[in-house]
Amino acid sequence: MKKNQIILLGTDGIWEARNRRGEMFGKEPIFRIIRQNPGLSAKEMQTGIFNTLNRFLEGRALEDDVTLVLIKITDD
């Protein structure tokens, strides 16, 4: 394990979530948030992912359970 390495575990409910047009959220938005925000803590990244998912859903309810565990290796 190296400093700033990120471990992500999640259920398929997050990337298979669909918006009103039937489009799937996918994994790429999750990866993009992590890649574009390397200085954030694991909690901040997780919050960003859930905020992005909620905007994507446009008020639509989730059809499946969503679990997301994000671990970031630090010196602390």
Provide an overview of this structure.
The chain is an alpha+beta fold. It has one domain. Helices cover 38% and strands 13% of the residues. The protein contains three helices and two strands; from the N terminus they run E-H-H-H-E. It has a two-stranded antiparallel sheet with strand order 1-2. Helix 2 crosses helix 3. The longest helix has 16 residues. It starts with 5 loop residues before the first strand and ends with a strand. The mean pLDDT is 94.
Order of H and E elements: EHHHE
Low-confidence segments, given as residue ranges, are: none
Number of helices: 3
Could you tell me the number of beta strands?
A: 2
Radius of gyration: 13 Å
The helicity comes to 25-40%
Fill in the keyword field for this structure.
76 residues, 13% strand, two-stranded antiparallel ribbon, 3 helices, alpha+beta
How are the SSEs ordered, and which strands pair?
Layout: E1 6-10, H1 12-15, H2 28-36, H3 42-57, E2 68-72
Antiparallel strand pairs: 1-2
Helix pairs in contact: 2-3
Short description:
The protein has three helices and two strands, in the order βαααβ. The protein has 76 residues and is an alpha+beta fold.
